[in-house]
Prior knowledge:
The protein is an alpha+beta fold. It contains 15 helices and 19 strands.
Amino acid sequence: MVKYLDNNSGFNMWNANRAAAASNNTKPKSRFMNFLWWAIIFMGTWWLFSAWMRPAERAIPTEAENAIIATDVSNVSGREISSDKITANVRGLRISNIALADYPATSSADDASRVTLLGADGDFIEIGLNATGTTAPDAKTEWNIAGDKMSWRNSDGVIFNRDITTDGYLITITDTVENKTRHDISFAPYARIVRADKSTAAGVSTGAITNTNSRVRYVDWNKMSKKSYAYSTTNGFIGFADQYWETIANIKSPDQTMRVKSIGDKYMADAVSSSVTVAPNDSGIFTTTIFAGPRDQRILDAAATSIGGLDETIDYGWFWFLARPMLWMLNILNGFVMNYGVAIILLTILLRCLMWPLTRKSYTSSIAMQRMQPELQRIQKLYANDKARLQMEMMNLYRTHKTSPMSGCLPMLIQIPIFFALYKALLVSVQMRNANFLWIHDLAAMDPYFILPILMGATMWLQQYLQSPHTTKNNTNPNDPMAATGRVMKWLPVIFAVMFAWMPAGLVLYWTVSNIFGIFQTYIIKRQLNRK
């Protein structure tokens, strides 16, 4: 960019016009105009500050919603359900304290606790039926429990049977209703998830998640705090997503209404299906499937056979087409080396090897640009007043040296999407959580000792030094825009080291290894060019 700020640029012409205006004693602005500008700046600043400090308007919960949150089910008989992946508590219609067997709560080897979803006081999933023409079980109903079966009979003689089965991270709830009355009864299945904790992570979509009409939507916590959201859909699911975990409920019935909102210090996502009529002496079957587990693409792909669209709930960002295969390759490499830090190093080397031809072309083009600078400056001075001839001569010069201004930018332009894709992949990868590498106990968190950011800054400076043209002070023009750019570029390693100090250690490891690879690559390319 700086090379365009030469003596013929519009920027310098603007500066010259300013200087000319000043030398011509241009009439200064009046005091009133100065006051007016300062008043506008003050009012704008005050408005922005007021908008920023204004407390968020929270959605007002209804009495029924407050009653749902306040319902005490501690006196309802409970039992435990489990699979090889989860254990959970069941009290009547509600399921809570879903512990994930394969995921320790901390990185400590002595800590036997597990990650628990809906483990806070008052958090739960409630699966039930809204009845018209009779009474359905509510959250405080005491069921008859016989093994894995639950049953309840109301005063009208309607029998409710509930069967709960588990398979991996899936919980399937099947309600069978037997109508023993002499009239039709309608039932509308519903599911609601209530939770309190507001888990956030920079760069990751967290909050409520819905799948309506085959479209996955995210509603973050702040938006829910301000207003409620409602959707109509033929089918889908509702739930909540954290950085590494998600809790989803899917009613196997058509024509649903879904809502997400805040209720006091709680957040609720619920869905209710259209009513189904059960004739006298007939029965109706209602099924709801719950997923409570990690946001692991392989696990979600397998669970999507039971809950359609579940495999699309991870937000990989704009460069998803790069992030997904990179994460897949990272898991493949980890399967061989059994360490994600080493897998990141191998993935970095693989990516840099694939970009080797482009990097070599960029560096040779940069050398050619440096060699043609004296001739380029001569042409610019010679044809300063003939823009058409200047452009033609510059194109001939580029053609002679077989280069172009954009050829040196190509590798950087390719690295940008790769960098952001890997950044997103590491952020959403549950495998990075508690992954050890040397002194680092969690590759998804920042380096606690800032060793990697310092190494990254040092290797970035060394790579920059090797790739920059070396000129003596006597040959350096202090007014040269390129020299000014060089002085600014020298600070980039320091700036990047500070910026990356709080980023995931896995990402900083990638950038550091990429710099080291670039240093050796520059050395090899230089030797090859010198031989020629």
